[in-house]
Design brief:
about 120 residues; alpha/beta; Rossmann fold; 4-stranded parallel sheet
């Protein structure tokens, strides 16, 4: 697992293509969100912003996680899973979650329930 200072992305958004509008909305909200200074003073080490956030903008085909997405997951501190009936049936979302768990970062998986 990467060290705290070596993460390229603050988070990776995992979603099914049918939920792309949610991924786009969440990505924009997170990238422009500024963590309140009072909260950052209470929790030393919190960044000023929650960024960069990775999200793959195209549908994926096949059943194996590509090596490039694996690298992006490795480079991410958190995994945000957009939870919907679509993602529940997505082998890609399942593979991304399993890959993150295999990296020993299961405590950093954040569900975002949309349906």
């Amino acid at each position: 697992m990467a060290t705290e200072t070596s993460y390229k992305y603050y988070a990776f958004i995992s979603y099914n293509g049918n939920d792309e509008r949610w991924a786009k909305w969440l990505h924009k909200k997170l990238e422009y969100y500024k963590i309140p200074s009072a909260l950052r003073k209470q929790h030393i080490g919190l960044p000023k912003h929650v960024r960069p956030v990775f999200w793959y903008k195209q549908d994926l085909s096949g059943t194996k996680l590509t090596s490039s997405l694996h690298k992006e997951l490795e480079a991410s501190k958190y995994l945000i899973v957009i939870c919907s009936p679509h993602s529940a049936n997505s082998s890609w979302v399942n593979d991304e979650v399993q890959d993150f768990i295999n990296q020993g970062k299961e405590e950093r998986i954040v569900p975002f329930i949309v349906e």
